[in-house]
Design brief:
- With 321 residues, this protein is α/β, with parallel strands linked by helices.
- The chain has two domains: 159 residues, Rossmann fold (3-Layer(aba) Sandwich); 140 residues, Rossmann fold, CATH 3.40.50.
- The protein is 45% helix and 16% strand.
- Helix 4 runs parallel beside helix 5.
- It starts with a helix and ends with a helix.
- InterPro entries: Glu6P/Mann6P_isomerase_C, SIS_dom, SIS_dom_sf.
- One of its GO terms (molecular function) is mannose-6-phosphate isomerase activity.
- This is Bifunctional phosphoglucose/phosphomannose isomerase.
- Keywords: Isomerase.
Length: 321
């Protein structure tokens, strides 16, 4: 059950990845991480805290960068299933160019190709959960193959400090507030990956539309779409805004968030602030994402949707064959 998956999520940070073909694992100052959907989320999460360059590639083949940049890079193909066709395409393209490659997957074609190429790979646990819920496994594997010992140490500590059950009440309350509306999640650019994860959880678990944007960009465009007049009031009333506040954000961003919230509330828009709290960036990130999991689950319960599987995605994959 998805509730068990959420409750057990922190235990993923105790996972110790095993790198096969480790003698071929190199270190680089530039990584291209190829992944789609939930399998790309770990890279989004770690990028602001990683002390080397990361290009996140969501798509077929390789990103449109110079050959010189490609030659410097290590391409890491990440797919929980191991069969994501865009990621397989990226791995094959990288190998064809003679680039250094690494694979992270629970099995599938990517693991087969890694063995064929003799490339380093991590075969993460095949637990049957959805990729969006395997974030801990994949993040630990990424930190391991990118040889970031400090990151590994910091996120491993979450296994003992995060209690997923303690965030259910807040998630359930949020679900009651957001029910019947389209969630719009706002955060700082620094927390954009967190906000995007909230959106995905609404989409995949609750099966509802959701939107996301970041400050201060939205202050230059999107907010004007909610400058309500009588003729547009019915449109704006369809949304509920979730502001992910973080005291560690730039002071001007903190002020922008407060003022944006006031402007929205003055126009009768529904706004809820959810603070990112914790002693470390990782605790703030994952406690927030667990709260989002609970909100999405309780929204699903209210709507009567299927909270775990993604049948429309599977239907689409069959159509693409």
């Amino acid at each position: 059950m998805i509730t068990d998956t959420i409750k057990q999520f922190p235990s993923q940070f105790a996972y110790e990845p095993v790198i096969e073909n480790k003698d071929k694992l190199e270190r680089s100052d530039l990584y291209i991480i190829a992944g789609m959907g939930g399998s790309a989320l770990p890279a989004d999460i770690m990028k602001p805290y990683f002390n080397r360059d990361i290009i996140i590639h969501r798509g077929y083949d390789l990103p449109h960068v110079s050959d010189a940049l490609l030659a410097r890079s290590i391409v890491i193909a990440v797919s929980y299933s191991g069969n994501t066709e865009e990621t397989v395409s990226a791995l094959e393209a990288a190998h064809a160019k003679g680039l250094r490659v690494v694979v992270i997957a629970s099995g599938g074609k990517l693991i087969e190709l890694a063995r064929t190429y003799g490339a380093p790979y991590v075969e993460i646990p095949r637990t049957g959960i959805q990729p969006r819920h395997a974030l801990g496994f994949m993040l630990k594997a990424l930190a391991s193959v990118m040889q970031d010992e400090a990151l590994e140490r910091d996120i491993t500590a979450l296994a003992g400090s995060l209690d997923a059950t303690s965030y259910e009440a807040q998630g359930k309350e949020l679900a009651s507030l957001v029910y019947g509306k389209i969630p719009v999640v706002y955060a700082s650019d620094a927390n954009s990956a967190v906000a995007y994860n909230w959106k995905i959880k609404c989409n995949e678990s609750a099966k509802v539309p959701a939107c996301v944007n970041v400050l201060s960009e939205l202050n230059h465009n999107e907010m004007t779409g909610f400058d309500v007049i009588p003729e547009t009031k019915a449109l704006s009333e369809k949304f509920h805004f979730i502001f992910l506040s973080d005291t560690h954000d730039h002071p001007r961003i903190v002020k922008r968030m407060e003022l944006t919230k006031k402007l929205y509330e003055d126009r009768g828009l529904l706004v809820t602030t959810v603070a990112l709290e914790g002693d470390s960036p990782w605790h703030r990130i994952f406690s927030s994402l667990i709260t989002a999991d609970w909100m999405a689950y309780h929204l699903s319960t209210r709507y009567g949707t299927e909270p775990e599987l993604v049948p429309m995605v599977e239907e689409f994959k069959k159509m693409m064959q």
